[in-house]
Write a structure and sequence with these properties.
By secondary structure, the chain is mostly helical. Helices cover about 75% and strands about 0% of the residues. The protein has helices at about 5-10, 15-25, 35-45, 50-65, 65-70, 75-100, 105-135, 140-165, 170-190, 205-230, 235-250, 255-275, 275-280, 290-305, 320-325, 330-350, 350-360, 365-395, 395-415, 420-450, 455-495, 510-555, 585-590, 595-605, and strands at about 285-290, 565-570, 570-575. It is globular, with a radius of gyration of 27 Å. The two termini are about 55 Å apart. It is a multi-pass membrane protein. Pfam families: NFD4_C (PF23262), Nodulin-like (PF06813).
């Protein structure tokens, strides 16, 4: 591999995306809190209430990233990654020292340690997400799905590492958690940076995204299969190490894309240049456009670029500061809906073990595996599907948020039924809907409020999940569970029964009311999203038309894929309307040169 090719790979935005996926795979370490919380409880002498408060500190740190969101807009990605790496290493190392008895901080100091340590992940997430979305502006839904999806899998990935190398010793595992993410961040600092997207889309982009999606899906189902096997059978350390090795090999596969595809792109271009003269002549055509149509097209593009015709909605694509966005109804509708959806989803996920226990089910491991995998699939799939329908049919992305909120409500109703067999389906639905919420929120907010100040906007919207989870977990689920337990204890004492050992709530009444209320909360979220869909429908139609205008006005030069198109006006020729990259053409399968004359007239008539 020559030096020039190495330099080209290092400057490839796809390498940044792959490093971003690996960085995100290290960004969900907070999800493995249950692996070491019991040892912390024993080593530090905490009771269950203190451990719950410790966990709440972890969630606050992992979801509140306002500072990193503000700094990414005024500094750079490498600086944000550096700060995140330092925070993560220092405070997770202190956590390791506390868990192994080397230091004895107070309880509130421990809460601060884990809060700041898990906050390092928000710096990683902000740097990766904002930079990659800016590097892939026309594929932001797909990119967000990939990046957010790997966060969803990070818990399962580190659980496999723990099982293979450290179980049951959590001390050395915490040291691994303290060192690996900062090391990945150091490498990411070199390649994750703003890279201008090409004006014309590479014909291999679709294949690259498809490859990344296939790798992600394979990894997700592989982890689900391994977790279920480990839950049902006794697995040796050797076999666990083998499982981990295969997992790491699959995880590294995305690195093939930036290494191998540049050579393919070059050879493909050379092969197209060697086309026969007759084929080149066949691939060229001319579109006759009247001066009036061309003038209207230019005026339309100008109007869409500078100001949207929709007066009652946020101007799509216009950059908002945090304060400007916070003055709009759209921002608070999105914030409220996210709090309803992700807050209730987190409450369901956090109470899976207790709910299964209350119903006498021993399949907690299976439920957790299903939630983890479908959380990942929801994050990836929602980005891909919503991107397709938005580009092809001008479907508002908030409509997909509305659909997944309905799915979340259905999942809560299935949990409320307390039928053990339905818990599997409910786990799949809650994982799918919870993951989809995060991807769709990121893409929607970037489209409504722009990318310039997106770091701050994204991290403030993320607070809605923490608020919703706190209210629904502590004030609703915890309160109802304790009240039901007190009722059971009072009934037992009334009959003269002596209660010994840890007291647990048994029966469907322990969580039924909670899930019914959360289904109603999701209903309120659906109402908010219905308003958001109505307010943004015209905006997404404007974006769709703008994309069509840009297809005519911004594409330059000859096409290496199919043809060169000329727009003629009087005796002038404008060689700037290559159509092969148009979403409309791709949606309808119209790419033949012989149909371009009819198509161009039709599209311009619509713009008039």
């Amino acid at each position: 591999m020559g030096i020039s090719r190495v330099k080209r790979i290092l400057k490839d935005r796809w390498l940044g995306l792959c490093l971003g996926m690996w960085m995100q795979a290290c960004g969900g370490i907070s999800y493995v809190f249950s692996l070491y919380s019991a040892d912390l409880k024993h080593t530090l002498g905490y009771n269950q209430e203190m451990i719950d408060g410790f966990g709440t500190s972890k969630d606050i740190g992992g979801n509140v990233g306002i500072i990193s969101g503000l700094l990414i807009d005024v500094t750079s990605a490498w600086f944000v990654l550096l700060v995140g790496g330092l925070l993560h290493f220092i405070f997770y190392f202190l956590l390791f020292l506390a868990a192994t008895g080397r230091i004895t901080p107070s309880y509130w100091q421990m809460c601060g340690i884990i809060m700041i340590g898990t906050n390092g992940a928000t710096w990683f997430n902000t740097a990766v997400l904002v930079t990659c979305m800016r590097n892939f502006p026309s594929d932001r839904g797909v990119v967000v799905g990939l990046l957010k999806g790997f966060i969803g899998l990070s818990g399962a990935i580190f659980t496999q590492v723990y099982t293979a190398m450290y179980a049951p010793n959590t001390g050395p595992f915490l040291l691994l958690c303290a060192t690996v993410p900062p090391l990945v961040a150091m490498v990411s600092m070199i390649v994750i940076r703003p890279i201008e997207a090409p004006k014309r889309k590479d014909d291999t982009d679709k294949s690259k995204f498809s490859t990344l999606y296939v790798v992600g899906i394979v990894l997700a189902f592989y982890l689900m299969a391994v977790i279920l096997i480990q839950d049902m059978f006794v697995i040796s350390k050797t076999m666990s190490c083998l499982f981990m090795g295969v997992m790491l090999a699959i995880l590294l596969l995305p690195g093939i894309i930036p290494v191998s595809w540049p050579a393919y792109r070059t050879s493909n271009k050379q092969s197209m240049e060697r086309k026969s003269p007759s084929l080149q002549a066949k691939s060229a055509t001319t579109i006759d456009v009247s001066p009036k149509s061309l003038e209207n097209l230019l005026d339309t593009a100008k109007v869409f670029t500078l100001d949207t015709p929709s007066k009652h909605t946020v101007k799509l694509g216009h950059d908002h500061t945090l304060l400007q966005a916070a003055t709009t109804q759209d921002y608070w509708l999105l914030f409220f809906a996210m709090g309803c959806g992700t807050g209730s989803g987190l409450t369901a996920i956090n109470n899976l073990a207790q709910m299964a226990e209350s119903l006498g089910s021993r399949s907690v491991g299976a439920f957790v595996a299903l939630v983890s995998v479908w959380n990942f699939l929801g994050r990836m799939g929602s980005g891909y599907v919503s991107e397709y329908y938005m580009k092809q049919y001008a479907t508002p992305r908030p409509l997909f948020l509305l659909l997944v909120q309905v799915v979340m409500a259905v999942a809560h109703l299935l949990f409320a039924s307390s039928v053990p067999a339905l818990l599997y389906l409910a786990s799949i639905l809650v994982g799918l809907a919870h993951g989809a919420h995060w991807t769709l929120m990121v893409a929607t907010s970037s489209e409504l409020f722009g990318l310039k100040h997106f770091g701050a906007l994204y991290n403030t919207l993320s607070i809605s999940a923490t608020v919703g989870s706190y209210l629904l977990s502590v004030k609703l689920a915890g309160y109802i569970y304790d009240r039901q337990l007190a009722t059971i204890q009072a009934a037992a004492l009334a009959t003269g029964k002596i209660l010994t050992g840890p007291q647990k709530c048994i029966g469907p009444q322990c969580f039924r009311s909670t899930f019914l209320v959360m289904a109603g909360v999701c209903g309120l979220g659906c109402l908010a999203l219905s308003c958001l869909v109505a307010r943004t429908r015209k905006v997404y139609k404007d974006l769709y038309k703008l994309q069509q205008a840009k297809d005519h006005l911004t594409s330059k030069g000859s096409s290496t894929e199919l043809h060169t198109t000329h727009i003629t006006s009087g005796d002038q020729t404008c060689e700037d309307a290559t159509l092969t990259d148009s979403p409309v053409l791709k949606a309808n399968g119209i790419l033949e040169p012989k149909r371009h004359r009819h198509l161009a007239q039709s599209r311009m008539d619509n713009l008039e």
